[in-house]
Structure formats: structure tokens, C-alpha cells
Amino acid sequence: MKLIRTALPDVVIIEPAVYGDDRGWFMESFNEGRFEDELGKLGLPVPRRFVQDNHSCSRRGVLRGLHYQLAPRAQGKLVRVVQGAAFDVAVDIRKDSPTFGQWVGVELTADNQRQLWIPAGFAHGFVALEDNTHFLYKTTDTYSREHERSIRWDDPDIGVAWPLGGLTPVLAPKDAEAPLLSRADTF
């Protein structure tokens, strides 16, 4: 397992070790001890334990986000794509952070097998780049409707460069109506 820092120092790309031969391939998709050791080597805190796994399937152009939960039910997320491809985004929404309002995007695909660690305090979203994209994520807290929040996917102050290729994104009503970061509840 190799962890790679992104432009947002607390958000890291995880490249698992993949072992292949003529039968196919094998990888360890998660190992708590190794994950914690690698975060420690980067000077990053160990998150709370993962308590919920989620799985979504989206067609090309579906954009989900930017989602987060407020404390005390804030969620860290470990995300990956197991079929298809997605452009995954994390936005720093910690008011006292030097990177508040900044974003990072990473392409996650079934082929590159990369994962992204997004700690609590960041909004998260993705757009499916292919039909039948299966997106899996582990969270450090369970879903809570009371603490769930969203920020507009196209907030001009954030300026995410979504790779839509001329497509109009397919949005849930709550995402289309989400507030701008300047009006959102943040950390």
C-alpha cells in the first residue's frame, strides 16, 4: 500500500499493491493496521474505525455531491471504484484551515484501483465517467439525516473543474438545490 499526498495535505490517494499472474490479480483492498501505519508515516491522524460500507451504481454523467455530515456525526470516507470510472472530489470545509474552500480531484477507475481517503471536515462528490460505474466507500460514522449537508456542485467560489465533456450533469434535487459554501453549515 502506497499513500500519496494531494494538494490538500489531509486527503491522500491510496495505491494498493496488486499481484497479478495468468489467472488474474489479487489485492488487499483494506488493512486497518497498514492504513494506520501509512497515515502515521505522513504525520496524519488515525481516523475513527470504519462502521458503514456504501455502494452506488451510476450512469455516465451522474454527479453526486458535494456531501458531508456535521459533527458529532462527521464522516471520514475511504472511496474507490470497482467498475467503471469516476472523477472524485474533496473540498476542504474547515473554516480555520489554510486550504478552506479549496478542492482536489482524482480519477478513480476499476483499472487503476486507486482509492481516496477523505477525512471528516471535507465535502465529497463524484461524477461517473462511464455507464454502470460502481462506487464503494467506507465511512467512520453511520448516515444521519439530521447531520447531512450539501454544497452546490458548481459553486463558483470553489470552482471544481468537473470533466463533464459537454454533458449536463444528472443531479438529485437536493444536490441541485444545495447552498453555496458561503451559506453552508461548515466545520
TrEMBL record:
Q: Which InterPro entries match?
A: RmlC-like, RmlC-like_jellyroll, RmlC_Cupin_sf
What are the EC numbers? 5.1.3.13
Which residues are annotated as site, described as Participates in a stacking interaction with the thymidine ring of dTDP-4-oxo-6-deoxyglucose? 143
CDD domains, alphabetized: cupin_RmlC
Q: Does the keyword Glycosyltransferase apply?
A: no
Pathway of action: Carbohydrate biosynthesis; dTDP-L-rhamnose biosynthesis
Superkingdom, natural source: Bacteria
Question: GO cellular component terms?
Answer: cytosol
Q: Which reaction does it catalyse?
A: dTDP-4-dehydro-6-deoxy-alpha-D-glucose = dTDP-4-dehydro-beta-L-rhamnose
Q: What does this protein do?
A: Catalyzes the epimerization of the C3' and C5'positions of dTDP-6-deoxy-D-xylo-4-hexulose, forming dTDP-6-deoxy-L-lyxo-4-hexulose.
Question: Which family is it part of?
Answer: Belongs to the dTDP-4-dehydrorhamnose 3,5-epimerase family.
Q: What is this protein identified as?
A: dTDP-4-dehydrorhamnose 3,5-epimerase
Q: What is the lineage of its organism?
A: Bacteria, Pseudomonadati, Pseudomonadota, Betaproteobacteria, Burkholderiales
